[in-house]
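Internal tracking record. Fields below are filled automatically when a chain is submitted to the structure queue. Please do not edit lines marked as system-generated. If the sequence contains nonstandard residues, flag them in the REMARKS field before resubmitting.
Queue: standard
Priority: normal
Entity type: single polypeptide chain
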Amino acid sequence: MRQPMSRADRAKQFMPFAALKGYEEAVKESEKRKKEKIILAEDRKEELDFKLRQLEYGDVVTISYFDSGEYRKVRDRFIKADDLKKKIVVGKKEIDIENITEIE
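SYSTEM-GENERATED OUTPUT FOLLOWS
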């Protein structure tokens, strides 16, 4: 005859388990999938260019931009715009002007 199972052993039978190892990591990774860059209309580009030209050294600004398959936002002090490199510097962050989607 078998011995009765202890309560702890019986409880282990009903504990959750990961039937699909790595499933949660795969779901998280799929959420991080890279996005495609949105191409802005000419009038939107002109509006952003106008806003950019209004900025002065030290202005606190929020910039939305596309970087490495993601849209990001940075809020910091405007340092400078480099027309030759087509980049702006906000705080310590250098951003390609063509990747900017919003200036606040």
